[in-house]
């Protein structure tokens, strides 16, 4: 193993340990168990080698925001790695996203749902419906909560859960609690919420999937 590879691996291992300690402490305070929660490590903008190191450290769930990056990294890891797409969906990329992503966190259009439904292996994928809790603010993807029943009724793909990115203008824990209530109301199993800055609040509110990048990989050179 080269020295720099070894150093990077140690750095990732140390960061993972800190994140896992924070997860463990929060879950024990909420009387929840680790098995209920999937840690998705967001490798966007980082090189494929980092994903390989994380795999060697036991990580099996990887998050990407862009089709081209996910398509490049997915073939480099063993088949038991699960790839999560959480970026804004573009209709013309759905065929390609379907080839490498196992879980879609950012579904927010029925038209996109139909395109995913007719792509290969749609039945084995998990879909989260992205909710926008402040539709009047700057658009960051997601449908407003009023449209959830209609989406669930019409969607040609089975919706596994709800996903949110905490709005900038709202206290994240209030947003997470609201999403948790909606999830319960519609009887969905999954709740994808919480990033590096707010995953503890999300876990307290019942998150089943947290999407953590910079706390594990370091700060990103550019926004993705
Ligand atoms: C980038 C991103 C994350 C990870 O963010 P960090 O703050 O680096 O943990 C999670 N979810 C989505 C939708 C993202 O775009």
Secondary structure blueprint with pairings:
Elements (H helix, E strand, L loop, with lengths): L2 H27 L8 E5 L5 H9 L4 E4 L2 H7 L8 E4 L8 H7 L2 E5 L2 H9 L7 E5 L17 H7 L4 E5 L8 H15 L3 E3 L6 H6 L4 E4 L1 H4 L7
Parallel strand pairs: 1-2, 1-8, 2-3, 3-4, 4-5, 5-6, 6-7
Describe the structure.
The protein is α/β, with parallel strands linked by helices and 224 residues long. It has one domain: TIM Barrel, CATH 3.20.20.10. Helix content is 41%, strand content 16%. The chain has helices spanning 3-29, 48-56, 67-73, 94-100, 110-118, 148-154, 172-186, 199-204, 214-217; strands spanning 38-42, 61-64, 82-85, 103-107, 126-130, 159-163, 190-192, 209-212. It has an 8-stranded parallel sheet. Strand 3, helix 4 (94-100) and strand 4 form a beta-alpha-beta unit.
- Approximate shape: globular
The SSE order reads HEHEHEHEHEHEHEHEH
- Biggest sheet character: 8 strands, parallel
Number of helices: 9
CATH class: Alpha Beta
Provide the gyration radius in Å: 17 Å
What helical percentage do the residues reach? Answer: 40-55%
Which features does this protein show?
TIM Barrel, 8-stranded parallel sheet, 224 residues, binds pyridoxal-5'-phosphate
